[in-house]
Design brief:
two-stranded antiparallel ribbon, globular, mainly alpha, about 80 residues
């Protein structure tokens, strides 16, 4: 992966798909919709559509460099 912004754009060269990268969907799905007891399932009306502040938080997490080994291990879970 060349840089963090590559991981949030579906097709960087074509200039399309901002926030449609699979990593964004994977993070949201894992955090909120992993099973029937997840917040995304319990409170589904709040996530149709996905709120912009949640999207901004996920993009910030993906694009913010960090040095904590624990955080890096979590981030690696979502990378190809």
């Amino acid at each position: 992966m060349s840089n963090a912004s590559d991981s949030i754009v579906q097709d960087r060269e074509a200039g399309v798909g901002f926030a449609e990268s699979p990593i964004i969907a994977d993070i949201i799905e894992t955090a909120l919709f992993e099973d029937s007891s997840g917040y995304g399932v319990k409170f589904s009306t709040y996530f149709k559509p996905i709120p912009l502040n949640l999207l901004a938080l996920v993009i910030t997490i993906v694009c913010t460099p960090c040095s904590s080994p624990h955080t890096l291990a979590i981030a690696d879970t979502f990378r190809d």
